[in-house]
């Protein structure tokens, strides 16, 4: 395939992705908060595969909503339609998200590959919000400016000490459900 034809094909794919995004963003206005109280915050992620995949997991695990910082577009195709069903909140900067979630009494946790408390050892209140930073550059803000945000890490035992951000988000959502919803379901069935 010639370079010119490859560029044309990539341009057509970008145009199609933008059309999907606009159509699904309009449908997202009717999205209903998920069954569980946790919130996902995506801080300046790349607009291609991970954002859509995280929406898919957020839908599967019943996230209340997803906040997007510095992300004004992403390809919703990997979400398999979930972008239409999970409420999305778009923000330019982290400060606004922090202010909103703090006012709603949410406990904020930032996922970091190192220097955080292990996920399994950290209490996760029902009103938890989990912040995931850019795939290469991390968080767009200095965590020292927000001392109420607690760093979390997912223990890993291989040579690579970082998970793909969409995989990390799924692990965190599952752990939250394991502690809250699944325990409540098990307790309710036992009574």
Fold blueprint:
Elements: H1 3-28, E1 39-43, H2 49-61, E2 65-69, E3 88-91, H3 94-103, E4 107-111, E5 117-118, E6 128-133, E7 150-153, H4 165-179, H5 181-190
Parallel strand pairs: 1-2, 1-6, 2-3, 4-6, 4-7, 5-7
Helix pairs in contact: 2-4, 4-5
Question: Brief description of this entry?
Answer:
The chain is of the alpha/beta class.
The H-and-E topology, N to C, reads as: HEHEEHEEEEHH
- Outline, from the CA principal axes? globular
For the biggest β-sheet, the strand order reads: 3-2-1-6-4-7-5
* Ends distance: 65 Å
Secondary structure: helix percent: 25-40%
What is the C-level CATH assignment? Alpha Beta
Count of helices?
5
Number of E-state strands: 7
Determine the CATH superfamily: SPOUT methyltransferase, trefoil knot domain
Poorly predicted spans: 186-191
> Which structural category fits the helices and strands?
alpha/beta
Main pleated-sheet profile:
7 strands, parallel
Mean pLDDT: 91
Radius of gyration: 18 Å
**At the third CATH level, what is the topology name?**
Alpha/beta knot
Number of separate structural domains:
1
Query: What is the annotated CATH architecture?
Result: 3-Layer(aba) Sandwich
Strand content: 15-25%
């Amino acid at each position: 395939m010639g370079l010119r034809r490859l560029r044309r094909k990539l341009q057509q794919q970008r145009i199609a992705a933008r059309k999907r995004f606009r159509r699904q963003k309009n449908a997202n206005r009717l999205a209903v908060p998920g069954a569980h109280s946790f919130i996902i915050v995506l801080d300046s992620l790349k607009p291609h595969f991970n954002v859509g995949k995280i929406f898919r997991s957020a839908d599967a695990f019943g996230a209340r909503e997803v906040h997007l910082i510095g992300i004004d577009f992403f390809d919703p195709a990997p979400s398999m339609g979930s972008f239409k069903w999970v409420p999305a909140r778009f923000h330019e900067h982290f400060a606004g998200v922090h202010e909103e979630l703090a006012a709603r009494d949410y406990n904020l946790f930032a996922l970091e590959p190192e220097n955080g408390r292990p996920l399994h050892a950290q209490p996760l209140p029902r009103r938890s919000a989990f912040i995931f930073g850019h795939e290469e550059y991390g968080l767009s803000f200095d965590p020292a400016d927000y001392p109420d945000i607690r760093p979390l890490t997912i223990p890993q035992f291989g040579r690579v000490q970082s998970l793909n951000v969409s995989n990390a988000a799924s692990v965190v959502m599952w752990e939250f459900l394991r502690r809250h919803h699944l325990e409540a379901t098990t307790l309710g069935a036992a009574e």
